[in-house]
Amino acid sequence: PHDAKTWNAKAEQAVREMLSGPKGEFIVAVGECGLDFNRMFSPQADQEAAFEAQLRIAAEFKLPLFLHERDAHEVFCRILRKHRAELTAPVVVHCFTGTLEQVRTLVDELDCYIGLTGFICDEREGRGAHLGEVAAFIPADRLLIETDAPFILPRNIPRAVQRVSVISGRCEPWMVVYVLQKLAQLRGLKSAE
User: In the sheet where 143-145 sits, what is the strand order?
Assistant: First the structure.
C-alpha cells in the first residue's frame, strides 16, 4: 500500500507478465498488498485502486494472498468482501494488530488466516496487550506465526540472548521462536503444542 501511488496499467501488466511467464511457476502468492491509512505514503484512493486490482489478479491466477491492513479495517473488509467469492486460494492477513471484533470478522466472515508477530510480545499500554484475547480466539488451523522481519523486534528476548547475539534493533527470522513462546503462553499451551 505504501507504493500504491505508482500502481498503473504498466505496473499491472508487468505483474501479469511475471505471473504468466517462465518464472511464474515459482511465485506462490500475491502480496504484500492491502491498505495502510496510518502512514498514508500513498493517497487512499490510489491504495484502494491498487488493492482491488491486486485482488482481481490473485483471483485470476488462483494464487493465495498475503495482505496488509493498518488503520483501514472497515474499508479493507468492504473491498475484500466484494472480491471474496472469486478468491479460491487462501487469504492471509499478516501482522495482525487489531481488535477481537476485527479478527472475528476476518476469520468467521471472510475466511482468512491470521498472522501474529512480535507485536504480541509488547504488553505496554496501547501496544500489543490487547492481543491476548485475539490470540486465544484464532482457531489453530487459521493461525500463522511470523516475525515481520526486519520490523517488530519481540520484547521477550532474554537479556542473555541479547548479549551474545548480533541484535541491532532489527527483527531477524530466527526470532520467531520468541513469538511462538509468547503465543503459546497466551493460548495456555506448551510451545511444542
Answer: 30-36, 65-70, 91-93, 113-116, 143-145
